[in-house]
Amino acid sequence: MTTNPFKQPKPGPPTVIIYGQGGIGKTTLGAHMPSPVFLQPEEGLKSGQKVDASGLIKSYKDMVGMIDWLITAEHKYQTVVLDGIDSIEKLLREDICRSAGVKSLSDFQYGQGYDLLKTEWERLTDKLTLLNQKRKMIVLLLGHARISRVEIPGNDPYDQNSIEIDKRGFGRLFNWADIVLFLSYRVTTIQQESSFGNIKTKALGDGSRILYTSERPAYKAKNRYSFPHEIEVEDGAPENFWPEMKKLILAAGNKG
Q1: Where residue 157 sits, what CATH number does that domain have?
Q2: What is the value of pTM for the model shown?
Q3: What is the mean pLDDT of the chain?
Q4: N or C end of the chain, less CB within 10 A?
């Protein structure tokens, strides 16, 4: 072989997860992605957000059918936004239980229901990967944050923000996504002495929002593009979100 068979792959569209507390602006960020279409297992879009959407999806089968349509049909969309992750898991649970004729995953023996849930998350993310790679679509999943207690032998326990789903599904999503961003308000603390001489810690915030891009004890996050640890979300200008993300991705080169 006389020519070099190896090439550096070009940056492809990312798979992204954004999670945070309710009402912080996750859906608004999604609505400002390139040519988005929303799949809605829950109601999150506001009437003023002029984007195409599925309407309320009531079954997992219906949602999969819409993803399959995006994979095979000719359309204008460049981004699919799944809003939100915990509602997707609810559809997954209902589908598994309906197929098995049980009321909840706890009715399965030996934790098999939760193993099935993990398997279904794997199948869904495989399908979303196909959509991402075949149709060159950005895949964005939105989720609510949940605070969990982390206990590591030999260390003091601490609270950590993660996505409000079963830990097995979260593990699959976290490993699958190129980018996992925790959206939160910027908070600073000051210590004040009370009239009784006690020291109290007071939290202060100005309403500014921060996307955290890499993991810390307080939250799960990651990216494959060497992002800065914090990205400020400019108030009233969510349309700047994707252009800034794109600059960072292109500057870092290809995925991985």
Answers
A1: 3.40.50
A2: 0.88
A3: 88
A4: N
